[in-house]
Amino acid sequence: MKQFICLTAIFILLTFSAFAHGIIRGRVINSNSGEPLSKAIIILRENNTMLLSDEKGAFEFRRLETGIYNLECSMLGFRSKTQEIVMNENETRFVTIKMEEGFLQIDQITVSPRKEVNYFNAIDFRLRPTQTTQDLLRLVPGLFIAQHAGGGKAEQIFIRGFDVDHGTDIAISVDGMPVNMVSQAHGQGYADLHFVIPETVEGMDFSKGPYDTKIGNFNTAGAVRFQTLNYLKKNVVKFEAGSFNTYRGLAMLKLLDKADSTNSLRQNAYLASEFVTAKGYFDFPQNFDRLNIMGKYTTDLNSSTSLSLSLSTFSSRWDASGQIPERAVRSGLISWYGAIDPTEGGNTSRSNANLTLVKTLNDGAVIRNQLYGINYKFNLYSNFTFFKDDSLNGDEIFQYEERNIFGYNGAYSKSYEILGLKASTIAGVGLRDDNIRDIGLAHSVKRRVLSDIKKGDIDETNANVFIDQSFYLSSRITLNFGLRYDAFTFRYNDRLSDTLGKSRNLNVFSPKVNLYYNLSQGAQLYLSAGKGFHSNDTRVAIMDSVHNKIPAAYGLDFGTNLKVGNRILINAAWWFLIMDTEYTYTGDDGTIGSEGRSRRYGLDLSARGQLNKWLFFDFDFNYCKSRLTDNSDETGYLPLAPKFSSIAGLSIRSFKGFSASLRYRYLGERPAAEDNSIIAKGYFIMDAVVNYTTDRFQIYLSAENLFNQKWKEAQFATESRLRGENEPVTEIHFTPGTPLFVKAGITYLF
């Protein structure tokens, strides 16, 4: 009996111990500023468990038995830190890990099976110079841009065999607010990033292919997400001056910076403003002016709730020389930097209000709510065909619109265990409504409207719901899958006809799956498959004759992230993408056309390396084969789809106060017509930047197109007629790229 009682007591004790689990709750912060650090990697070595800190720097380990644990925390640009924690029975421990800023070291990288970790983002953002919003976009490996109608127009974007026009096949956001404009006067998905002040951006995240459940419309070739500063460390005043009468002034001022005695509850507010003016390098001055103002307030309401409010406004105006025909330059009618119609140009403005509330629950789950409102105005004068249709007045067009956008994004995320497996779930809902009044296309001459071609009102609503599920099957394997549902309501009222307005409801399901497998701490394989889409313009979607209202994209990626020694990180991916037949609304002439089905496949190769403590290199190479599958081999070329492209550079970081970058951009020749009869020529351009930094001052000098080459930045096969010509001619029309452009700047920090 005594033995039985003793064994029973031991069994009860062991049973109690088995269920006596503790919790470690922590927060990762910058030791200097107290700012929370998101996406820091925290590893619990005793059970080989890895977590990422969330946007508030928080993390949590559960079901821990009594014992001694070692937390290892690492993040690029910070010194790694190990913290020992003694866990008692059923104890909940709260820890704060203070990370010290240090040199960027690639040997800190441990290739992770978590899909949220993208070291290429972090490396490029810290090393590569970003003086403009164009530079921010170029941080995406394999992404090229071209400007072809003055500095105020959104850039033309190329990525993964797409000429995505101004954003049709790449989803871009800033602090969760959409940049792409649906059913825009100039083009579907028009993405103008000029409302962003580059110095306010503290991070970016990109993804290629339609594999992220959280992203919906326009996510076919990929997506780019920018995050602005929540905390301004120092006041900043900057002045820049460059070639062609280019000047820029910037001020970023702290309005509020408070913290409690533990530095866990913080408040910060700042105001940022920039003004840019430039004459440009064209024969007819560009007269570009832009003004940006942004204010942001961030506060911790309590230990589990934070709030962020930002307000911004932007306006710009410009003149443009547009796209010029090669024959006009060859004949001497105009110079390389001349214009056929120098009255092109426009003006645009955008104002934003963005409110975000993040709440962490007692069980570690996070609820995120976001409300935003946008007012957007757009006016653009262009002339692509000159005198083809109107030999007397010319073919200048006027595209215009004004819209209000209201949106909501909500998400619930939680990490947990199920059947012994670690897992995480993100569930979300969203709503976006674009109310566009007076959107149209008109025939004009010298910015004077002659007659309306198209004119109407649009109301487009997109509601969505998604679930994104990850299972961490082991310390080496992560399985992620998701399902997204988007519902659209399209309404269009044609103000040039007596017919009643038309409307249509459409919906689309988008499944995704991602598998990540770590061969070792330095080698990962991944396989991604998914469906994405971009919506059609409302003026297309409401037409009875259009059958495929929401063209889908089906993608597959097979790739690897590989760490070679302690100095080199490589990403290589073979990818495949099929696009459904799509009907498009051409804003330049108000017509509707079909582009047919398309197929793209290719190889992306990126390498980042550290040659010593202060010298780094980066290299991107991209190959793609693109075809229209409904056409023959001879007529199935996708116009302007890049085949070969490459970007690479050397960067010096903080060598006795000096930083520098020497880089090239290479875009190969590509077909400009479906039968490959007209070729858009490629280019190879070198750029350089050098900085000298002290605690209070930064001085920099940059040179774009270092060897002053003549190159064609944007090119199109266009049919046009010059004054005096009897018949139209189809040939390359181009916008010349920037000649040698030197700029210097000085920054004062206080």
What's this model, at a glance?
With about 750 residues, the protein is mostly beta strands.
Main features:
4-stranded antiparallel β-sheet; 5 helices; 5% helix; single chain; mainly beta
Overall outline: globular
Summarize the main sheet.
22 strands, antiparallel, barrel
Mean pLDDT: 90
Please tally the β strands and state the result.
45
Helix content: under 10%
Helical element count? 5
Q: What gyration radius follows from the Cα positions, in whole Å?
A: 27 Å
Low-confidence stretches: 7-20
The span between the termini is 79 Å
Strand content: over 45%
Structural class: mainly beta
Polypeptide structure, described:
The chain is mostly beta strands. The strands form nine sheets. It has a 22-stranded antiparallel β-barrel. A four-stranded antiparallel beta sheet has the order 3-2-5-6, with no helix packed on it. Strands 12-11-16-15 form a four-stranded mixed beta sheet. 40% of the residues are buried.
